[in-house]
Amino acid sequence: MTIKVAAVQAAPVWMDAQGTLDNTIALIEEAGQKDVKLIAFGEVWLPGYPFTIWLQPPMVAMDVVMQHRMNAITTDGPEMRAVQNAAARAGTWVMLGFAERDRGSIYCSQALIDDQGTLVMTRRKLRPTHMERTVWGEGPVTDIKIVDTPFGKVGGLCCWENIQPLNRQGMYQLGEQIHVACWPSFGMFKGMMDAYALSAEANTNESASYALQGGCFVLSANSIITEESLDAITMGNEDLRQMVHPGGGAAAVFAPNGYRLTEPLDEFSDGLAIGEIDLAMIEGAKVFADPAGHYYRPDVARHVLDAFAGPAAANPPAEPPLAVVPNTMDAAE
Questions:
Q1: Is residue 176 annotated as part of the catalytic site, yes or no?
Q2: Is 168 within 8 Å of 210 (Cβ atoms)?
Q3: I need a surface site. Which of 49, 188, 237, 245 has the fewest CB within 10 A?
Q4: Which fold has domain 2-288?
């Protein structure tokens, strides 16, 4: 069965939940009109990614941090219900990236809504990256999860969660077939070689790698920085404007062999990267390498984790044991 899926590349109304909600509904309606079965939005699409935290010390950026907090939404609030209603009208599944408020804390979250408008899954980013820890709390380990849908097993991770080997392996073990990789805009530090890890090239490569390694489809969704939002992002600091650039869009859909299924969109333009996918392609990929099956070595994972225990394996033993598990796996493995 072939279906259409779409990765969003668009600009939120930065730090404005209601304005971004209107854009969200319009994009879901467009997806429904184009017979898209699953549409995916980027990291904290609603109300937008707080880029300023990478440019200013936390206390200097506090105005933006507070705007982000005040525009975060709840899973049972009117904004989420509006997205659910839009999904039902369009007959389209939606993976939404959003800033989630839970009492006094904010989280970088994803929500999966079905084509009947039911909120079927929410999850939180397990470990916010670097400066993000000044804004968001951590998600629980149980937020490695997938949902069994009529068109395949769907899961998602936010930004650099996608580069963590254990996160990936956990999703592969759950049988993930369609993965949503939520990213922010790649307009930060554009052209600076020492910031390559924050570039469109690096993170698009990560999405393709995830697809190839897991033998699954990947929807790589992200946002755009607009010229109008630059003053607010940089807090009017002309020096900081050299580090933030308009555009930064790089939405794509990748096949289980790592190949890109969609043509690049103009990085400055809102749009949907729409790809046609067929789960039968996964069978071809898994013939050669199934990281959760015939190509999986749980004994190696246990050996590495047991032998090099510690927060960052700062002091691994000079001569790690040759084997911490039997040489042969038992029948259950």
A1: no
A2: yes
A3: 237
A4: Nitrilase/N-carbamoyl-D-aminoacid amidohydrolase (3.60.110)
- Tens of pLDDT along 56-113? 998 999 999 999 999 999 999 999 999 999 999 999 999 999 999 999 999 999 999 9
- Annotated catalytic residue: which of 158, 159, 182, 216? 159
CB atoms under 10 Å from CB of 64, counted, come to 21
Please report, for the chain, the start and end positions of each structural domain, with discontinuous segments joined by +.
Answer: 2-288, 298-333
Say whether 125 is catalytic: yes
Quick check: 325 pLDDT over 60?
Answer: no
List pLDDT tens digits, range 7-53: 999 999 999 999 999 999 999 999 999 999 999 999 999 999 999 99
319 given a catalytic annotation: no
Distance (Å) of CA 10 to CA 7, 40, 243: 10, 11, 20
For residue 194, the model assigns a pLDDT of 65
Of these residues, 37, 125, 190, 286, which one is catalytic?
125
Q: In the chain, what is the greatest distance between 2 CA atoms, to the nearest angstrom?
A: 64
Tokens of 136: 């968001």
30, 43, 132, 176: the catalytic one is 43
CA distance 38 to 180: 10
